[in-house]
Amino acid sequence: MDQNSAQKIESDLDVILSMIDELQEVDTSKIEPMFSPIEQTAIVYDDVISSDNLKEDFLTQAPNSDNNFFKVPKVVE
Amino acid sequence: MLANKEITPSELTEESISLAKRYASLNCFNVINEEAAIAQSRNLSFDSNNLLSCIPIAHKDLFCIKDLETTCSSKILEGYKPPYTATVVKNLENAGCITIAKTNMDEFAMGSSNETSYFGNVHNPWLKNHVPGGSSGGAAASVASGIVPLATGTDTGGSIRQPAALCNLTGLKPTYGRISRWGMIAFASSLDQAGPIAHTAKDCAIALDAMTGHDSKDSTSLHLGKTTTLETLEKHTSLTLGIVKEFNGQLSAEMELAFQKSIMTYQSLGYKIKEITLPNIKYSVPTYYVIAPAECSSNLSRFDGVRFGFRSKNIQNLEDLYVKSRSEGFGNEVKRRILIGTYVLSAGYYDAYYKKAQQVRRLIAEDFNSAFKECDLILTPTSPGTTFAFDSKGSKDPTELYLEDLFTIAANLAGIPAISVPQAFVNNLPSGHQLIGPHLSESAILQTAHHFQLNSDWHLKSPSMESFL
Amino acid sequence: MTWEAVIGLEAHVQLSTKTKLFSRASTSFGADPNTNVNLVDCGLPGVLPTVNREAFYKAIRFGLAIDATINQTSHFDRKNYFYPDLPKGYQITQMERPIVLGGFVEINVDGIKKIINITRAHLEEDAGKSIHDADPNNSLIDLNRAGTPLLEIVSEPEISSAKEAVAYMKALHQLITFLDVSDGNMSQGSMRCDANVSIRKAGSQELGTRTEIKNINSFRFIEKAINFEIKRQIRVLESGDKIIQETRLYDSVKDETRPMRTKEFANDYRYFPEPDLLPIVISNEEIEEIKNNFPELPKHKKIRYLNDLQLSENDAEILSSTKSLSVIFEELLNTGNNAVLAARWLVGDVSALLNKDQIEIEESKLDAKLISELLKNIENNTISGKIAKEVLEECYQTGASPNSVIESKGLKQITNTNELQSILQDIVNANPEQVNQFKSGKDKLFGYFVGQAMKATQGKGNPELINKILRELLAK
Fold this sequence. Notes:
Helix content of chain A: 25-40%
Radius of gyration of chain B: 21 Å
Shape of chain B: globular
Low-confidence stretches of chain A: none
Oligomer: heterotrimer
Number of helices of chain A: 2
Mean pLDDT of chain A: 85
Number of helices of chain B: 14
Largest interface: A-B, 41 and 59 residues
CATH architecture of chain B: Alpha-Beta Complex
CATH class of chain B: Alpha Beta
Radius of gyration of chain A: 24 Å
Strand order of the largest sheet of chain B: 1-3-2-4-6-5-10-11-9-7-8
Number of strands of chain A: 2
Distance between the termini of chain A: 28 Å
CATH superfamily of chain B: Amidase signature (AS) domain
Structural class of chain B: alpha/beta
CATH topology of chain B: Amidase signature (AS) enzymes
Shape of chain A: flat
Number of domains of chain B: 1
Helix content of chain B: 25-40%
Largest sheet of chain B: 11 strands, mixed
Order of helices and strands of chain A: HEHE
């Protein structure tokens, strides 16, 4: 990111963050967070294989791949 | 009326496509599905019992359609063709719809004006060089201009309702979980919902009934069957409509006038009007702008140039792969939101921001629960103003555009359904009012909107498309 | 200066479910690259996770076996970081409310028993595999493993030596195999271990800076890696330096640990609850059902083997603690083989063959049917024990059935008294000097005659009959 864009984003972020800071006014001391608007619980599924082999579809649209693998620049561990 | 007797399916599709080309300057489509649509229209036989049979439809370009380019209006997905189709698209296809095109949108659904698309702005058919609203701006423009009678949009903070209001359309965001999110590229997982954009409440009802229903591939899909809102559309009861005390004084005089006209129309139809309070509603915008960026910063991590999508050309190592591909591939609004999202989730800030916002969210949802004990539906304006010129908002202060969603955001936070309905024009430009209902009250909402439309004609007006020829 | 080591272990156990944790793609081992990958595992835009019930049941079985608390309501969180084999850019794991909390495992090192407490065990999805040495310019990514269910078992830092660490991992291994939670095949990556190691002055209550050694995949390497690391840390501290908190890898070729060179692209994982999944609730009925269908644990098996079947302590111990052997043993019991005989052969000759090739019985040509047939031939005296060893070796190499080997090689015992009588008479007649020596008191020579008899019958003479007849002949 160049200097100008970086500065602009920084000042944008400052503005956004000060808007968000309004939330600190609210008393939420006894409130449970609401991570999802749905109050039901999960349906769980049987351990039965039901999948198509989409290997060709996946690999042909990858930016860099061969017939078997996705390729990324070398990772040195 | 969606049923056609004087025209064949293929003629209808061809007409739609030719309109799309004629109005290309609207820039409401990212890709036109010409060959496949025409082929499909020739093969389908019209079923007069099915109101969606052979109807041309446009889908927002974040719904995956197998082998058709799906880009979310972003460079990072330019040319991407999914190997599968979204459930909601399949549902509409099974109901007889023919996919004409993918609609332009704000990049990754982030925006309220369709000015952040990698493929350029969408025009409002009512006024050139003005915004159609966002993020489903292309969808709204495609219906308002008459190219298609129906389009799918998504609504995370108002992205169906606000464009509908700015384009004189009816747009519905259903209860969270009504419509499957499988194949709908995620922006904010706990807020996103798909919905129809059409001219009338009746058309929305027809579409909604086809789009809904439990999908086992989506764990957040409600365990319910399809809605049957069309069946009960003509039932009208004298409901009580709540007016939100805290929204008083937010509008300009002319917008207030238009809104008051809607209130009077409802009154004349026998609806009771009552003032209600949503004490925490003013925190809905900051709450949203913590939760949505947080979830999206994580949802967008998969765009890394490894398995699909854009990969930068000048990468020397793994770090380059991530940094360059994402910097070059994402637009500025997306980057802003990813940065905010990362910040509010980071260690040390999580409690003060993310957790806090989710707590305030619960307060807002509980406010609605209390309010719905006093009234049946809540009536508000949809958006603070009518359309505005390109580049007139947000360049100095990014939060300016965020305030477009002032009236719509709370419904997403609470997961409750809401609709925007065309009302009196302001300065010759469209405006809309919003009906919000409790969980699963789509039938009541659509009945009420339909009742309004039987007794008004705003929704029948169409723009002159001269400036786009 | 005496130092003591403080070690905590994180075991990553691949669950033996047929499908992945959040998708119904197969988890089969050894598939061609990128063929056990579906839309969800590839992390394509628009996909969503759905939960595998069996993974929860296996985790709960483990929790019950270690006397842990089962969190009947648990949920998933996202752990965000970038790495090419992590398709979504986040891992779905359980941070805040894991399925299993607490519990303990008993270990036995050099006769001393010790309890190691378990902090927690949670479910999470595995990442794919990166191959760094196949292509000079690129790393290759195979997503087959992406999405496989893992149970991450975290111990309290109560382990004090490499030996204890190995004992602890072996105890875990035994539990997970016997409970059918995992196949525990470490060479295939079914169980991996991260070791957190620190040292402190003996008797001190403070914890030293720890390092994490990641992804150790054999008991031998666990012991070596930890021993190396302890020695290294002592060296560092004794020379006045400080221990750097870092992640290290164990290099088995050089037998040393070294720091990992890639920094993970986020030290802060920005955990937050997974919004695409709802909380999972396990009912009391489901827990009861799991309890009622609990497989027999090693300690209970051993008691049964000792008391009901009268096996020797050694045989009972080995059979009850090695899953693959105990499975075969139970099958042999079902086909009516003699328990003591079966045990002796499994623990003895069969194990010897397997150990020489360092394989498990499932990887060999032997199976319960084959061994049962062999044992029956011994039980009904068709062949002698000595010949049986030959037959077993042949069957092990070729997979042929014992009956066919016995037939084709003519190995049946000679039990015809007359035949033996005449052979032995010939031997006695041919060795008059030895006969005299024996009769005059050299009892040891009896073995010489037995040896001659074995030679003459090519080992097929029935030992008991040979003894009986020889004694009669030599008594004359």
